[in-house]
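Q: What residues go here?
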């Protein structure tokens, strides 16, 4: 019965309870298992996938064009995953994971590439996700970014936000903008990231990259002392809490360019999320700060290409203007969504770029519908472009 129980727990994700497995001791004796991880990451690249997923009791899988696909491998046991992943962690990362039960980190495999990873626990076992990060920072043209973005990225002062869900290229767009500034300005750029994904060389600018957990305790902690570091440009990998957002707004008001990412469904939701991060008695002040400092919110989505060759960018724009500033200051951001169909320069709805992609044959109509904000409006735009069936 004991042997049967051992087998059951190993198979179903409770190996550490039944086997008293100590991953910190075992990892050093099984470093060769990194080769298994390397081969799976190689498949991730060869399939042009976005993420590799490893979970106990599940067959390893890769996300390709937003769909999960299984590898031709057996399901992994808890001990196998722990041995495999602990082999690539530093002692400090192992300690952090043991204490916090979750770990964000990045690492490189020679001859394969660099990966952004998340390690977490589920059903008393370890689960792992890895996303490939290109070591070459893509250009704006390669990413399909709109031309106007460059003008905002090269401003001396203000707040520029890149928003959207996980896995839709926010970090890559942010890295592209940093590289643009690095090449075209002579500035002191300080980034706070969790983890550092793209590594920037010092070009015309200095780029000092600080990683949460390695170079600073948190986003907020890294930002508290940032003004003493004499930055011209501050890059916040993710604006997560009200303290980080507050410092970012102050920086944008006081002569700094601030770039950051935010998880939100669209451009106006990003403004609401920033305001809602603060207590009610502070929200009016935050609206006033945001109205004065905001340059641009770009919300983005990645859609499957019609020919199956990868993904293509669709975006929504909300840029500063008198009407945008007034709406933010007065707490009437929701009214801007209705104005987006009025074809004004500072407000471009995602349906506009979706219609362009469908009309150009880059995206199928069925794919565009999944990301549409207003299907009736999308259909009207397609009729105007002569692309509606």
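A:
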């Amino acid at each position: 019965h004991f042997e049967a129980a051992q087998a059951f727990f190993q198979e179903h994700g409770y190996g550490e309870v039944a086997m008293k497995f100590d991953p910190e001791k075992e990892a050093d004796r099984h470093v060769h298992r990194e080769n298994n991880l390397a081969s799976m990451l190689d498949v991730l690249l060869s399939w042009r996938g976005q993420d590799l997923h490893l979970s106990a009791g599940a067959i390893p899988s890769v996300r390709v064009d937003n769909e999960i696909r299984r590898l031709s491998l057996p399901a992994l046991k808890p001990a196998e995953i722990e041995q495999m992943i602990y082999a690539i962690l530093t002692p400090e990362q192992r300690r952090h994971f043991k204490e916090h039960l979750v770990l964000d980190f990045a690492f490189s495999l020679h001859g394969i590439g660099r990966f952004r990873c998340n390690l977490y626990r589920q059903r008393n076992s370890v689960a792992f996700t890895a996303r490939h990060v290109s070591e070459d920072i893509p250009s704006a043209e390669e990413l399909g970014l709109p031309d106007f973005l460059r003008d905002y990225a090269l401003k001396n002062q203000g707040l520029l936000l890149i928003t959207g869900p996980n896995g839709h290229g926010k970090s890559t767009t942010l890295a592209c903008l940093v590289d643009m500034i690095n090449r075209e300005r002579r500035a002191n750029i300080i980034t706070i990231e969790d983890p550092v994904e793209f590594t920037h060389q010092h070009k015309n600018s200095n780029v000092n990259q600080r990683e949460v957990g390695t170079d600073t305790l948190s986003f907020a902690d890294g930002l508290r002392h940032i003004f003493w570091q004499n930055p011209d440009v501050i890059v916040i990998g993710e604006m997560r809490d009200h303290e980080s957002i507050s410092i970012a707004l102050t920086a944008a008001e006081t002569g700094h360019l601030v770039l950051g990412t935010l998880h939100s469904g669209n451009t106006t939701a990003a403004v609401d999320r920033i305001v809602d991060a603060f207590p009610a008695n502070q929200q009016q002040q935050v609206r006033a700060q945001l109205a004065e400092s905001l340059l641009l919110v770009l919300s983005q989505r990645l859609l499957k290409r019609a020919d199956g060759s990868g993904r293509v960018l669709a975006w929504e724009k909300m840029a500063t203007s008198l009407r945008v500033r007034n709406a933010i200051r007065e707490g009437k951001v929701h009214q801007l969504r209705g104005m987006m169909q009025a074809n004004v320069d500072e407000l471009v709805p995602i349906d506009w770029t979706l219609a362009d992609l469908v009309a150009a044959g880059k995206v199928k109509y069925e794919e565009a519908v999944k990301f549409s904000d207003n299907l009736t409006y999308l259909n009207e735009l397609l009729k105007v472009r002569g692309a509606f069936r």
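A: Context that may help when evaluating the design: The longest helix spans residues 170-184. The CA atoms of residues 55 and 127 lie 5 Å apart.
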